[in-house]
Amino acid sequence: MVGVLFACFPVCGAGDYFPPPDSEGGWRSLINQNADKLRKVGGMDRAKLDEAFQLAQETTQNGGLIVVRHGYLVYEKYFGRAARDSNPDMASCGKAFTSIACGIMLKEKRDLIPQGLDTKVFTKRYLPEAFPLDDPAKADITLGQLLAMTAGFHGEANKQGYTNGKEVKLDPVPQDRSLGLDMSAVRYPLWCKPGEGWSYSSPSPHIASIVLRHLVGMDLKDYIEEKLGKPMQWGAWNYCLYRGNVTLPHANGAGSIALHATDALRFAYLLLHHGLWGSRQLVPAEYVAMCSRPSPYNPHYPFSLEFEVNQDGHVAGAPRDSYWKSGAGGFGIYIVPSLDLVFYKLGGNDAAYNPALTRLSQPESYSHSRENWKPTRHIPEVGVPAVLEMVSAAAK
């Protein structure tokens, strides 16, 4: 099935523009050009982008908006602790990186996992730490279901499930953190049999990252650095591995990656180009395509392989080929192929910008004006789909 073969998929030509690293000048830019040139070359309405930025300021304590269209940086503004070179905890945006890493792994290690996304991974070969199984139903969970969040794992606190588009109320079930990063995910309970429902459940992508770790012999962070970070020449980045006196033994496949804003945008631009970066196919094009459209592993909700998709038009003001990954606190990475558009919305409270999480130095020139800020809208995530609509509307 789709998990077995990576068919040929049309990609952009190697002559297309790809930005050098920030250390060598970074993105070509129209930011300092007048509004007429921005419209003519970049095809964007600056006033409408300012409206999207204003919404971001109303919904999160810190944040920003950085936009690329037709390969030009057309907008870049930040507020509070956010900056181009900050490394905030991007929360669940990290799930998108886990998925793309798995896509690379499936092609690279095809001989070890020949059934691809259809592979049942709760076996001694792929997840030896899961044995003995605490629930026999887990033996039927496939890698595709883990990445589409249809493995049956219980939704997180204050979440719900869906079965064939119909909402199912779920009682919160706490994750037993005393078991450690890996086992608290592996032992998380199921609310339905694998494939029979969807619920947003962070243990699923972390278990996928454990499978990846076994197959490639590297931690998720190291694998991403080797397959994406180095080829794309990211600046300093890390996972939020440090929690007070506790250091996580592995990167969390469920999230908390921490990239510079311009590199998060490079990640989106890579997906816009079907996994191509310059002359190198870093990610299988067919896997990127599966991320961008409704998934056969998820008939229940418009969520593919760790990306929300809009083919059903549930975000009415955005093109139907839009796809994105949001993160708690109002973060979002967006790809809109039909508009040749990618953008990154930063969010987060002050804690998300604590350099102790990554042990990377953070910019010290941030504004202190947001330290006593209170939201005028009390649900930060409202800004994620709304900004998608507003930035899409700015495209001419």
Largest sheet: 6 strands, antiparallel
Given the C-alpha coordinates, what overall shape results? globular
What is the string of helix and strand elements?
HHEEHHEEHEHHEEEEHEEHEEEEH
What value does the average pLDDT take? 92
Low-confidence stretches: 1-15
- The CATH architecture of the domain at 22-85 and 260-394 can be named as 3-Layer(aba) Sandwich
Strand order of the largest sheet: 2-1-15-14-13-12
Q: Kindly, what is the distance between the CA atoms of the first and last residues, rounded to a whole number of angstroms?
A: 39 Å
Question: Could you name the CATH class of the domain at 22-85 and 260-394?
Answer: Alpha Beta
Fraction of residues in helix: 25-40%
Q: Helical region count?
A: 10
Radius of gyration: 20 Å
Instruction: Give the tally of β-strands.
Output: 15
| Category by helix and strand content | alpha+beta
How much of the sequence lies in strands comes to: 5-15%
As for the CATH topology of the domain at 22-85 and 260-394, it is Beta-lactamase
